[in-house]
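G., before I forget:
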Amino acid sequence: MENDQEQPQQEMEQEQVDIELSSLQGQERIEYINTLIADSYNIAIAKKLEEFLDIQINENIYLFQANSTLLKLYQFNPTHLNKDSIAKMLAKALMNFPCNDFLFLSYMIPSIIQKEEPLLKLFILNNFLETCKFKEAWSHINSHSFFSEIPSFIDNIRNFISGVLSITYQNISITMLGELLNLSDRTQLVEYIQSKQPTWKISDSTVSLQSDNSKQKKADTFTFDQLSRILPTFIK
Amino acid sequence: MSQTNNAGISNTNQNNNRKGGNNKNYQNRNNQQQGGQQHQGGQQQGGQQQHQHRNKHQNQQGQQQGQQQNKQGRGKTPLNVESFPINLSQQQVQQLQAFQQQSQQNQSAQFQSNFLPPATALYTPVINYFINLYNNFKSQSHQDILVSYDSFFKSCETYYPHCALPTIENLIPILGDKFEESSFTDRFFVLLYKEIYYRYYYALVFQPNINTCVESWQNYYQIFHTLLSANSPNDVEIDLPNAWLWDLVDEFVYQYHTFAKFKLKKQDVDFLSENPEIWDTTNVIRYLYYIIKKSQIFSANTNRFESSSEDFCSHPVYKMLGYYSVISLVRVQCLLGDYTLALKTLELIDMGKKAMYTYVTACHITLYYYLGFAYLMSRKYNEATKALNTILVSVASKSKSQNFQSDHNEKKTDKMYALLTICQALYPNKIDENVSNNLKEKFGDKLLRLQKGDLTVYEELYTFAAPRCIGPVPPYISGFNVTALDPHRLQLSLFLEEVKQQSLLTTIRSYITLYSTISIQKLAGLLQIDPEDLRVKLTCYKHKLFNVLGKGETKWNNQLDIDFYIDQDMIHIDNRLYAKETDSFINSILKFEGSLTPSYNWM
């Protein structure tokens, strides 16, 4: 019985695994990866997913499901475990902060590997970012070339930090902002702030991080939803 | 324990000798009883048996022991009931002797924890219940099957408290001519009885010996293959109540979980390396997948020209089995630490109020337990709170039915209260008043200590409440040593890491609730920490909150929480507790409107 079902499936899978990743582009490639990971317990797809992970790094795209499937395959087939790939997918997960991708992956990585390089540096950085110790995070990033070698890694981390600062601060001194974003060069910093306009504005030595709209208190405003609940009462 | 056990066995032996019954004898008796009144007969016997049960405790057992065992629901075998000895096979006799020797020699529970002696006698009530079960099974009436299913289990608990159930080979002769080897239904009944046999075995021993595990696995293999190889739903002439179907799938995953937690001996490892398919994670998941696929519950009504009775999802057994397999799959995914996948799988299930998971209480509880746990591990504390609150409200409103599962359900409920306590400490949220009171009763003192950031209490509650996570491959294959790979400890340490990262946040929360504005300097002074550290903590607070609420949600709909922002060196606090005027006005309007409306209608 089992053979009846499995045989054609396996043949189909074999065909799928044979497709060259480099022959596909954009959406087509994503769709292909999605069909691959639908059968998530087939170790034969691991090589393709590793390849796709490199593509994600080089082309700065991201598909969490593909990476977590790869990790799962390692979990089920420990002999295939590739620490460098895990390091890469963790780096991609950090780039997707504040989503919890890093956390989800770490539940499936044996703790002994977490405490060793090449993964240790990623877990240290994760801890700094999670606790918002941004200055420490930057000095850690700067002391490991691994991070700067990943395209857009630094930009993404900076964007994450900007996001957290935006929801925390209304106004912040420009020097402090520079430190937290690791932009010590004034012109670079100003350029960065300008890229965030109109939400961010410089005025003298402080930067306003929240747009005027969100400053308004929500407490004294009605939404139509709220109002519509009581409308019938007034109509009577 | 072992002494009572021993006594029980020797007593029953004596009893048997006195009666001097043999196989023929009990068949005769059966035939007499089969005249349409079995059900009633069974019930009478049940009542009688209970009575004897009580007598027994008073007369023959030490009072204390009796009470203790009564509490556990597993008294000693009542003796004043007619019984017939079972002709044990050579192997069973050896097992029995070995067991008796062992329990005489050493009092340690070691031997007993993985082995049950075979049943030595058949008791009349059990026989009656068994026949009932068989007849009802043939009649395919849900209600009747369920009643006899429950009462069969109950009678087994009374008569076989410390040994395995009689094997199906012992029981088939009872059915006499009614049983037909060639009938699909009868063959399937045999498989189902065996499943009950192993389930009973697993319920009584902590870690069954490997032979039992293998046999049970093979039995599941047979059940699933019988169901999966059917060409048309019409070929499968069986019907089973939902509770039984749920027990079947649930037990399958339970046994897998038990097996994965095993500490294997050298000879077991040798055996398993030659038979890697036994209780293998991939196989377990694959079976669940196949059942879901076969059941067509998620793919029906698409390209249909054929009559709908050809769909497997029109067959209640397939439909519910498929549905329960989804829930069990979620459980396996949680046990393996893949919470994203678990939550994704759950999206398949309609979570409406009248959803199918409510049919069986144990299923309802299991689903929400893993849902709550997956949310907790995903740091979605408000979602976890919502889920746990919902199920605990519903559990509290249900009347407490006494069946053999209620014990299990109660334990799960306690665990869910513990999980909810953790959520409340990390992210206070409004919960049902009743639930809140129960929670305070059970874990009130713990909650206070959690709020103070006591890590040991977090660890204690987590260890109590969380399912024991497992790795998909046993250590002898993965090559990691056991302590290095312990997946359960990994989950725990990551959870505690998060708690550590949140430390001080609750304290900060309690302070800023008191102010509408406060300078960073001043608050740092109150908390006795460095102002720079406080800035980091405040940013962290915002980050963690964002984490909880998720990307999509921008609204602060949590009434108990506060929002703040920093303007250079000042913290501005927007206290939600006092800023709900709009809502409270609207709610009062609606309330008054509501209390006025009925009088209109009456006029």
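The longest strand of chain A covers residues 169-173. Confidence is low (pLDDT under 50) at residues 1-9, 213-220 of chain A.

More on Monday.
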